[in-house]
Write a structure and sequence with these properties.
The chain is built from eight helices and seven strands; from the N terminus they run βαβαβαβαβαβαβαα. The chain is α/β, with parallel strands linked by helices. β4, α4 and β5 form a beta-alpha-beta unit. The protein starts with 6 loop residues before the first strand and ends with a helix. The model has no long low-confidence stretch (mean pLDDT 93).
Length: 248
C-alpha cells in the first residue's frame, strides 16, 4: 500500500516504538495524531517531531477511547491508518508474589494490551472502511509465538492479539477489502518497558523502518530480527522454540 497522504492514529505514541512509528509516518507526509496517557511525554514528543499532533488518552477507559476517535476526526479529518501500539508488561511470579499485587496488574495488562486494542479497532472501523485505502496495524510480539515464563499475562495478551488480528483480516478480506490488517512482531526492543531486561535489543527506529517497509509491500505479518528465526523454528520444531524463549 502507499504510505503517504494518510491520517494516522498511533496509541502509545509518546515514546518507544509508538513514537518511532509516529516520526516515520510524519516523515512521509502523513497527518499523525499520537495518543498516550502522560501529557508531559506527549509534549516532549511534539517538540521532537515537527507537525505531530497529540492527544492525552487512557486507553483502559472506554470514554477516553471514544473521545480519542472523535479527536482524530476533528483534528485529522478521519483515520486511514490505525496503529494499535500501546502496551504494558508486568513480571509477576505467581508462585511467590502476593495476589493483591498481581490482580491489579492482570486487569491493567489485559485492558491495555488487548481490550483497548479491540475496542479502538471497532470504533475506528467505520472511518477506516470509508477510505479508498486504509490499514489496521497491530503491534504484537515474538512472545505471541512462544511465551516466556516471567510474563505469563503479557504473553497471553499478545497471543490473543495475534489471533484477533488474523480473524479480523479474514473478515475484512471480503467485507471491507480496502482495509488491510498488519501484524508487527518485534523481538526485544530497547524501550522504557524493557529497561534492564535482556540484551541484543532492536532500536524502536529499526522496528518502525521495518514496519513501514513491510506495509509498503503488503506483508501482513512483519517479523523482525530474531522473530524470523523463532517463527521458522516454531513451524519445524515447536518444543525447541519454546525452550529458546522460556527463560528470557
Amino acid at each position: 500500500m502507499r504510505l503517504t497522504g494518510h491520517t494516522v492514529l498511533v496509541t502509545g505514541g509518546s515514546s518507544g516504538i509508538g513514537l518511532a512509528l509516529a516520526r516515520a509516518f510524519r516523515a512521509r507526509g502523513n497527518g499523525v495524531l499520537a495518543a498516550a496517557r502522560r501529557p508531559e511525554r506527549l509534549a516532549q514528543a511534539a517538540r521532537e517531531v515537527p507537525g505531530l499532533l497529540t492527544e492525552t488518552c487512557d486507553v483502559t477507559r472506554e470514554d477516553d477511547v471514544r473521545r480519542l476517535v472523535a479527536a482524530a476526526v476533528e483534528r485529522l479529518g478521519g483515520i486511514s491508518i490505525l496503529v494499535n501500539n500501546a502496551g504494558v508488561q508486568f513480571n509477576d511470579d505467581y508462585a511467590v508474589d502476593n495476589p493483591d499485587t498481581i490482580l491489579p496488574h492482570v486487569d491493567q495488562e489485559i485492558a491495555v494490551n488487548l481490550t483497548a486494542l479491540v475496542k479502538l479497532t471497532a470504533l475506528a472501523m467505520p472511518l477506516l472502511a470509508r477510505e479508498a485505502e486504509a490499514a489496521v496495524v497491530n503491534v504484537s510480539s515474538a512472545l505471541a509465538l512462544a511465551p516466556k515464563q516471567s510474563a505469563p499475562v503479557y504473553c497471553a495478551t499478545k497471543a490473543a492479539v495475534r489471533s484477533f488480528t488474523k480473524a479480523l483480516r479474514y473478515q475484512l478480506e471480503t467485507r471491507a477489502p480496502s482495509v488491510r490488517v498488519f501484524e508487527v512482531l518485534p523481538p526485544l526492543v530497547d524501550t522504557e518497558m524493557t529497561r534492564g531486561r535482556g540484551g541484543r535489543k532492536l532500536s524502536p527506529e529499526a522496528v518502525a523502518d521495518a514496519a513501514l517497509r513491510g506495509m509498503a509491500t503488503d506483508r501482513w505479518e512483519i517479523r523482525l530480527g530474531l522473530t524470523r528465526m523463532l517463527a521458522l523454528v516454531t513451524r519445524v520444531h515447536p518444543p525447541l522454540a519454546e525452550r529458546m524463549v522460556r527463560r528470557r
